[in-house]
Amino acid sequence: MAQILEADFDTIARKADRASTLTFATSTGLRRRLFDLVRTSELDGPVVEVGCYTGGTSIFLAQACALTGRELILVDVSDEFLQRAVSNIKQIVGPCTVIPFKGTSRQFATSNMLTKRPLLAFIDADHRYGAVLEDICAMASLENEPVYWAFHDYSLRGTMGDRTQIAVDRAVHDQFGKIDPMERIGTQTLAETAPNHGGDFWAANGSEGILFKNSDAERKPTATPAQAKANQATDLAPWPEWLADDFRTVDQRIKDLMGRGLDCEGQTQAFVKRWYADAVPSIRRLREILASETLRDAYFQDFQSMIDGLGEGVKSDVFSTKACFPAQSILNDKLLNILGLCALRAQFVRKSIEKKRRDAISELMRAGNLSPKDFQETDQLFANLDTFEENGFLALSVGSERSYETICQELSDEVVMKDQWLTKVDGDTLLYRMPLNSKDTPEAMSVVRNKDFMLSYSLICGHEIRPIPVYSEFVHQGGGDENEDDANKIWHMDTFHNTYKWWCFFSGVKKELGPFMYFPGSNKLDWKKMLWLSIYSTYTAFAKERGEVVISPRISSADLEFFGLSEPKAFDVPPMTLVIADTFGIHRRSEPEVSGLIRRSFFGWARSELT
């Protein structure tokens, strides 16, 4: 069998050597190993090569496929490369089934071209970290993943331009974790090589390629098909132009600051050198880090160690619950913000809340006043908490018809719309607010002290609720300055941290009243939101330096496109409905269908205690 394999391989190799149109980017050893795998496997299925160039490796895969009755599918974004590869295969191999596909790996995966599970996926396209992630995720999103995976230029490195982002090995292990067994194939390097004329070199103890078998039970890429879309290539071209402009602008501003001698000494300087090429921070590099769960965890550990080393006063400031950046504060440091300071704060708060919720569940379940009375009540409590964590909001029916009638009397127009209470103008919206208390508004306060609400709200906040401010709120749409826009009708987040607001819509809300709107799941802190926070906080720091006032982050339509959120939910609710929302999520006050009407509720808010 070995002699037959060698003869089959050598026949194609001799023909290939005489072809002037071929360019070989892979070594003979790597081509031979892939040829043998395809030629000898008893498993069925086609071979998919992502990135074919002129077909230097494709002709050997085509010959092996022809001898075993398989299809070879070539995927490349270049029509020229595909045509040259197919032409070379026809000239050297002869009759065989070769299917060219012009487009990205993602487009191929969604084309429904594959009807069988591929025997092999050979990834040899763009070797930059983000591009390799995209190719892996695309092939992993197939209904049947490849039986074998192979990668070229596994240990390649680059020193010039965007080739500094070449990192096939890191992308592979960020997605698959530790691979055992993993076969190193092709040329091996013991010592680091000198850069060639293009600035590329091989890392020490490197390997030209790798080959491993997929395990349905034990080895799956960490990115699911839904996540695959988020792991975009590092190249800016596929991204919205507004975001590409932001990256370039912020990077240049930071480089200018570095050039003017911005303080970057000690631990900060060491951190920058560890995580960024040439000690110059880059939003593009930050995106790459935040997109990888493995890199992100290590990065934030290093970042927090650096912050902790700056002193207790600084640490207290960084992890405070301040909504925006005070002047002359480390929170206003432009370099630290582009390095991800705001994202670090958000992650710290998120992890702190998760821990406090676990602790609160243990304590409240044992407590007397708030503990659930039976299994049914316990199950409902946890179901509510799951709904809140998944979506960022929770709607509960509270009170009764009697409560509704009594609250309408307690919070009548005559009571609330008095001059001594707060009147606030938000553009074309006029708000009337009045503090509530047990003496004057006992029925409203009884709703707030309802056990179901208190228990759910305590678990959401991570601690037992103490007396909190409660206000009535009458929202008069169109009652303000018609020449000004209501900023709360623009999609926004309230703060950089999790703040939990609640509204009891005691008279109900219909669409003509302009209901509260929220993007489900926008409360979650994924890598896109962390990257957005880093960009936004950098501009906020520059704005503070110029003396400009920065309100809660407003979210543009381009931002929403970047986040890739589902459709927003409008809270068109019946009377006596309680809505709790994490206003770290994206929300707004909607336009009413009928102007001049008043939306009635009472509300309050709390933050998780971090210390």
Write a structural description.
By secondary structure, the protein is an alpha+beta fold. The protein folds into 3 domains: 227 residues, Rossmann fold, CATH 3.40.50; 107 residues, no CATH class; 218 residues, Sandwich (Jelly Rolls). It contains 22 helices and 19 strands. A hairpin with a 2-residue loop joins β11 and β12. α1 packs across α3, α2 runs parallel beside α3 and α6 packs parallel to α7. The N and C termini lie far apart (70 Å).
Could you name the key traits of this structure?
611 residues; Rossmann fold; Jelly Rolls; 3 domains; 41% helix
Under the CATH scheme, which class of the largest domain?
A: Alpha Beta
Number of domains: 3
Structural class: alpha+beta
Question: Terminal Cα separation, in Å?
Answer: 70 Å
Give the CATH topology of the largest domain. Rossmann fold
A few lines on this structure:
By secondary structure, this protein is an alpha+beta fold. The chain has 22 helices and 19 strands.
Present the secondary structure layout.
Elements: H1 2-17, H2 28-40, E1 47-50, H3 58-68, E2 72-76, H4 79-92, E3 98-102, H5 105-109, E4 120-123, H6 129-140, E5 148-152, E6 156-158, H7 168-176, E7 183-189, E8 200-202, E9 206-213, H8 225-228, H9 241-259, H10 266-275, H11 283-290, H12 293-308, H13 312-318, H14 334-338, H15 341-366, H16 375-391, E10 393-397, H17 401-410, H18 413-416, E11 422-426, E12 429-435, H19 442-448, H20 451-461, E13 471-477, E14 499-505, E15 516-518, H21 527-545, H22 557-563, E16 569-570, E17 577-582, E18 587-589, E19 598-607
Parallel strand pairs: 1-2, 1-4, 2-3, 4-5
Antiparallel strand pairs: 5-9, 6-8, 7-9, 10-17, 11-12, 12-13, 13-19, 14-17, 14-19, 15-16, 15-18
Helix pairs in contact: 1-3, 2-3, 3-4, 6-7, 10-12, 11-21, 15-20, 15-21, 16-20, 17-19
